[in-house]
Design brief:
359 residues; alpha/beta; Nucleotidyltransferase, domain 5; 2 domains; five-stranded mixed beta sheet; binds 5'-O-[(R)-(carboxyoxy)(hydroxy)phosphoryl]adenosine; binds zinc ion
Length: 359
């Protein structure tokens, strides 16, 4: 069976075709980065409007690349939440219309379940394992005993890791999207002399906190007088400022030190969860899982601890529809079907619970 998967939860309009044997036949992602860059972050209304413009062409391209006609489809999977309601509704409405027109089943998928399932795109993932999702909206640890037995054991108490990356990039006047830029400019930069906090790293929970680290970076930037007339800001329109001559290297060092602090916390907490739960497999996904420093540190630490590590290919870490298609296979197989009443869910706390609109 061919499944068309649609993902529009944030600022990527994505469609993919997968088979019910977990083969990805196409994976098309139209990024809206250029539309949001001037604002330094995703503007929900702009995202919704761009999704409306892009969804048709993106779906057509996904079908074309897969070499199939829409009449060959056996089902449509769509991200139902969590995410921006207006953005989600574009994908959901499209999926409903297509399902109705073709008389095929549709199924709403949890975006985070999609991220966790991205790991099984390049091979089978065994159970049980610990899952870490690190994205722009979420930083959560899951104990996953089976595909349908997923328990969140920890989460961020404030900012998500990706959100912290984006905000720190903004206060360093690096531009948008911040995570990718920090990753790039930190390559090969030694930063041991810069001491930043690792919040909650050795406490007894699996929770995270990144807002204090972000404030520590801000204070350091102000103290170091890197930028002329720096004001206290995390929000507002992005500006461009050149560092004071001679202090350019400090921007790179601070970016690298921030990345190192986030990496340390994520690695320590994830490994603690694996060991405490007496498991030997860690799966890491979400946009921040494409970060070079994190990937490298996870590989080293997991190898040292005898833990098997699965991190999807970078293109499956950031938002995409292939992961939604892969996640949907189990639900289609179990006979889960969405009705035309299916609605967007901005906050979807438990992966186990299915919101209204399905039978
Ligand atoms: O999973 P994702 O594409 O969307 C959400 O579900 O949020 O994650 C986006 C987040 C953004 O905050 C972005 O800055 C971050 O992932 N990100 C990165 C990298 N690539 C994307 N953060 C650090 N290093 C990267 N290479
Ligand atoms: Zn995501």
């Amino acid at each position: 069976m061919y499944i068309l998967a649609i993902e529009t939860s944030c600022d990527e309009t994505a469609a993919a075709v997968v088979t019910d044997t977990a083969e990805v036949l196409s994976n098309v992602v139209a990024s809206q980065i250029a539309d949001h860059a001037a604002f330094g972050g995703v503007v929900p209304e702009i995202a919704s409007r761009r999704h409306v413009e892009l969804i048709g062409p993106v779906v057509s391209e996904a079908l074309k690349q897969a070499g199939i006609d829409r009449r060959d489809l056996g089902g449509v999977a769509v991200t139902q939440g969590p995410g921006l309601v207006g953005a989600l509704l574009v994908g959901i409405s499209f999926a409903k219309a297509l399902g109705y027109a073709l008389n095929i089943p549709i199924c709403g998928i949890n975006h985070l379940e999609g991220h966790l399932c991205a790991a099984s795109i390049d091979g089978t993932v065994r159970y049980p394992h610990i899952g870490l999702v690190v994205s722009g909206g979420h930083t959560s640890l899951y104990r996953i005993d089976a595909p349908d037995a997923v328990a969140q054991i920890g989460h961020t108490l404030d900012d998500a890791a990706g959100e912290a990356f984006d905000k720190v990039a903004k206060l360093l006047y690096l531009g948008y999207p911040g995570g990718v830029i920090i990753d790039r400019i930190s390559q090969g930069i030694a930063c041991d002399e810069i001491d930043l906090p690792r919040p909650k790293i050795h406490d007894n929970s699996y929770d995270f906190s990144f807002s204090g680290l972000k404030t520590a970076v801000l204070n350091l930037v102000i103290r170091s007088e890197i930028f002329p007339e720096m004001n206290l800001r995390f929000s507002g329109l992005p500006q461009h400022k050149e560092p004071v001559p001679g202090k350019e290297y400090l921007v790179q060092k601070i970016a690298a030190a921030f990345q190192a602090a986030v990496t340390d916390v994520l690695v320590v907490k994830a490994i603690k969860a694996v060991k405490d739960c007496a498991m030997d497999l860690l799966v890491v996904s979400g946009g921040v899982a494409s970060n070079s420093s994190l990937r490298h540190a996870l590989r080293e630490r997991c190898a040292g601890e005898g833990i098997e590590l699965v991190i999807p290919h970078r293109k499956y870490c950031t938002d995409n529809a292939a992961m939604i298609g892969i996640a949907s296979i189990r639900h289609f197989r179990e006979g889960t079907r969405a009705s035309l009443d299916m609605n967007a869910v901005s906050r979807w706390s438990s992966l186990q619970k299915r919101p209204a609109g399905h039978s």
